Amino acid sequence: MTGMENAASWEGRDSRYWREFLGVPTVQLFATTSSTNDKARAAAEHGAPQLTVIIADHQTQGRGRGGRSWHSAPGSSLLCSVIFRYYPNAHTAVGAAPVRIGHAVAGAIEKLAAVPTRVKWPNDIVVPGHGKIAGILCEAAARQDVAYLVAGIGINVRSPGDAFVSLGDISDRAVGRPELLAEIVARLRMFADAVTTPLADQELAAMRPRDILFGQAVEDEAGLSGRALGIARDGSLILQTASGLRPIHHATIRLAGSQAYPGAGE
């Protein structure tokens, strides 16, 4: 299992260092793995505590929403997953988690890289004029004996290939993976205990300026079209269609007509 075992270090430091640096209970490091979410789900099933962080230098089977691949080259991207624990009840809104986490990651990138960030529902981070710079994949499990959510985060810090945009391509600042991870974890910690609660009014108001779909004529892969009116408290996208308002919980959204990715090549 060479290369798949726990790595001795990441960015020249061992897991103990990163655990203390990030202020989290556990850090697992991998040189190469299938995906950090795979490792995070396995750790969560075995009782790993909240805010356990899984870091990999490279993924061989990184994925995004809908089973799409997430491409990375060794050392080019921040690749990590964070474990959240929650207690399901009648008010649980798992769909709010990727929206909440996506905006936290966007804020961290904007702060450190000094580039404008937008969020394409539910959790793609976009730099207008350049396109997608990062993505989040949330996967949850809720059974009688266990409930957890893992958030996989992939950010192109340096270019993984000619077809992809990275912070190194568009930012005047040299952004390192460690400082970016620390800023993200600090922001996630602020709502870790409430990650699956409905979005509050003040959260929705703060998210509005970053919502790249707001007011746009959009359509999904099935041909449903309408105007995006923002995010609901449960994390769904509100679409004004010809037949009225409709919440969208799971879909791939593109600009209507052109099928263009919002924010790319503006």
Task: Please provide a brief summary of the model.
With 266 residues, this protein is of the alpha+beta class.
Write the layout of secondary structure elements.
Layout: H1 15-22, E1 27-33, H2 36-45, E2 53-59, E3 77-85, H3 96-113, E4 118-120, E5 124-127, E6 131-142, E7 147-156, H4 167-170, H5 177-189, H6 201-207, E8 217-220, E9 225-231, E10 237-241, E11 244-248, E12 253-255
Helix pairs in contact: 3-5
Mean pLDDT: 90
**Helix amount, in percent?**
10-25%
Q: Quickly give the structural class.
A: alpha+beta
Query: Strand tally, please?
Result: 12
CATH class: Alpha Beta
Helical stretch tally: 6
Low-confidence stretches: 1-5
Identify the quaternary structure here: single chain
CATH homolog superfamily:
Bira Bifunctional Protein, Domain 2
Number of domains: 1
Order of helices and strands: HEHEEHEEEEHHHEEEEE
Rg calc: 18 Å
CATH architecture: 2-Layer Sandwich
Q: How is the biggest beta sheet arranged?
A: 7 strands, mixed
CATH topology: BirA Bifunctional Protein, domain 2
What does this structure look like?
The chain is α+β, with helices and mostly antiparallel strands and about 270 residues long. The protein has a single domain (about 15-210), classed as BirA Bifunctional Protein, domain 2. About 25% of the residues lie in helices and about 30% in strands. It contains six helices and twelve strands. The chain has helices at about 15-20, 35-45, 95-115, 165-170, 175-190, 200-205, and strands at about 25-35, 55-60, 75-85, 120, 125, 130-140, 145-155, 215-220, 225-230, 235-240, 245-250, 255. The strands form two sheets. Strands 1-2-3-7-6-5-4 form a seven-stranded mixed beta sheet, sandwiched between helices. Strands 11-10-9-8-12 form a five-stranded antiparallel beta sheet, with no helix packed on it. A hairpin with a 4-residue loop joins strand 6 and strand 7 (about 145-155). Helix 3 crosses helix 5 (about 175-190). The longest helix has 18 residues, at about 95-115. The termini are far apart.
